[in-house]
Amino acid sequence: MTQQQPDADLVLLGGRISTLSLDPGTPAEVSALAVRSGRVLAAGDDDAVRAHVGPATRVVELGGRRVVPGLVDSHVHFMRAGRTWDDEVRWESMTSLADALAAVAERAAELQPGAWIRVIGGWSEDQFAERRGPTRAELDAVAPDNPVFVQALYEYAVFNSAGIAALGLDEARIAASPTPDQFERDADGSWNGRGNGRMAQLSWFYNQLPPPPFEREVVSTGRLSREFARLGLVGAMDGGGVNSGPDVYGALHEAWRQGLLRTRVRLLKHATRRGTEAEDFAGYARFGEPRFGDGMLKWSGIGEIILYRSHDDLGKPADFSPEALAEAKEILLPFARKGWAVQIHVMNREFLEGLLDLFEEIHAEVPIDTLRWSLIHANAVTAADVPRLRALGVGVLHQALLRFNGQQLLDAWGAERVAGSPALRALLDAGIPLGLGSDGMRASSYNPWASMQHFITGLTVGGTPTLQGKNLLSREEALAGYSRDTAWFSSEEHERGQLVPGFLADLAVLSEDYFEVPIERLPAITSELTLLGGDVVWSSGAVVPATD
Predict the structure, then answer these.
(1) For 381-407, how does the pLDDT look when each residue is reduced to its tens digit (9 = 90+)?
(2) Do 41 and 100 lie in a common domain?
(3) Which residue from 20, 272, 304, 349 lies 20 to 30 Å from 542 (Cα-Cα)?
(4) Residue 256 belongs to a domain
(5) Is 304 in the same domain as 442?
């Protein structure tokens, strides 16, 4: 007697479905999926999966389209970007400054005079035919009646005249800024609207801007989540942000309460400000619980900044002294004892060596090898570090930062060293957990397909080689790093990132076949249909009726 198969809520047929399965019972590619109660019920050929079609089952014909597990950005500043998403103009897809300025003009035409226009990172001069950014005069020409703020990665910012006037950025305000010598001057000595500098100065500029009303931040966060779904992103591991106090999380939590999120967000508890780190984290350690939350919004650990004075960057001095590392140890030990995951930003070799020494000290007192501690960026990691990482159970979260600022690293380290920055092949060969991401939205683009293109080619947006040779990833490796392998860092590898029975039905039906489209077209891929727990959270209308 044939056993009755359980009915599915949804069945997808006739696709090219990449399961990324680690289960020998599920092939790497199937043509059909059945979904029940938010999870994959069956994965196989069309005939086998049709057995799960019942009278109430929704059947979707895929027409040969490529399907992949829903993407997860391993390190992105989703919470911070969501607050201003509706007030931003994004330049990452622009190929000329003229087009970028036209986008600002178009937004200005839609707004009332006096409304702010923000271009907050995610672009590089190298992507423009003109190979330069905008001037104050050019911004004045396209938006004379609207204040405009343009940030170029973490390199410089430009205001137009209306923005300078709106903020009252006179000589007294300039003198009170963190680095007044970084305000660029014309021949007559007057400020020309451009301010150079790294994180501290650019954060100061950004913090002068008036925040949107709270209700607008909430709606804006929901719209950013919709944009993520449009690209096939179903998850974001949020890295917090410089000086991100408790208040900046309000819009994200309210969007979650109102059911506006279409993205599973995993949060890190972040140091609020320089000088209060020990106090801030002591409170989190006393009252917080690891992995507190639900399937849509959950605390997954602490990071990315533990101690501001030791937050390193290229060209930025940082404190790696024994005293600083001792303070970091006092911060981290209570979290080790309570079983928290830790993720720490590290770029330079000096800090990496000190940090691994520190992890080993803590591990000798409280074992951390099962806690999912990890290094963010980790450009300085070499094959020689692999035994230490393995012994500590430490993973690596690496982002496509060099797609935009690769020339800066080439100038600092040289091409030979950058070709293995980091040693991705050694990490993969050794089984070190590796999650991939963008570090969007200021330091990089949030587009996952553009990031994967970089991991596959090693090229900057301007075509300059960075990561090369054996450290380049295959398309399958890049996809796995942006989905299945990132699940380890939030302790969810048992239910996310694979399209196999029992796992969450998070997936994207792609506009083009990721495995066959020419490499130069990867950044143009979008999702025709995105499912989150089996529910439609985005549809272009090509497969099922369009969503709002």
Answers:
(1) 999 999 999 999 999 999 999 999 999
(2) no
(3) 20
(4) no
(5) yes
- 329 and 417 part of one domain: yes
Which domain-ending residue is among 163, 179, 208? 208
- DSSP label at 205? H
b/e map 187-209, b = 16+ CB within 10 Å: eeeebbbbbebbbbbbbbbbeeb
For residues 142 and 200, membership in a common domain is answered with: yes
Contact between 288 and 299 under an 8 Å Cβ cutoff? The reply is yes
CA 30 to chain centre: 29
249 belongs to a structural domain: no
CB hemisphere CA count around 109 (13 angstroms): 8
Residue that terminates a domain, selected from 158, 175, 208? 208
Q: What is the pLDDT of residue 1?
A: 41
DSSP symbols for 300-341: EEE-S-S-GGG--BTTB-----HHHHHHHHHHHHHHHHHT--
CB atoms within 10 A of CB 72: 31
- Which domain does 134 fall in, by range? 85-208
Shared domain for 354 and 442, answered yes or no, is yes
Residue 527: inside a domain: yes
Same domain, 429 and 504: no
In a domain, 313, yes or no: yes
| Closest by CA position to 241, among listed 83, 112, 367 | 83
pLDDT of residue 179: 85
Residue 373 phi/psi, 5-degree rounding, is -70, 150
Say which residues have a Cβ less than 8 Å from residue 437's Cβ, sequence separation at least 6. 73, 74, 75, 76, 237, 397, 398, 399, 400, 451, 482, 486
pLDDT at res. 4? 77
CATH of residue 426's domain is 3.20.20.140
Q: Can you name the residues that pair with 532 across neighbouring β-strands? A: 535
Q: Are residues 387 and 444 in the same domain?
A: yes
Total structural domains within the chain: 3
Encoding tokens for residue 354?
Answer: 């000190």
Place of tokens 């994180």: 199
Separation between Cα atoms, residue 380 and residue 92, nearest integer Å = 27
Asked if 377 and 425 sit in the same domain, the reply is yes
Residues 167, 170, 176, 181: is their CA dihedral positive or negative? positive
Terminal CA-to-CA distance of the chain, rounded, Å?
Answer: 47
**Ranges under pLDDT 70 in the chain:** 1-3, 243, 315
| DSSP characters over 379-428 | TT--GGGHHHHHHHT-EEEEE-THHHHHHHHHHHH-HHHHTTSS-HHHHH
List beta partners, residue 194: 158
pLDDT tens string 239-264: 987 767 777 889 999 999 999 999 99
The whole-number pLDDT of residue 2 equals 54
153 Cβ contact list (under 8 Å, min separation 6): 121, 122, 123, 124, 404, 405, 442, 443, 444
3-state secondary structure (DSSP) of residue 16:
strand
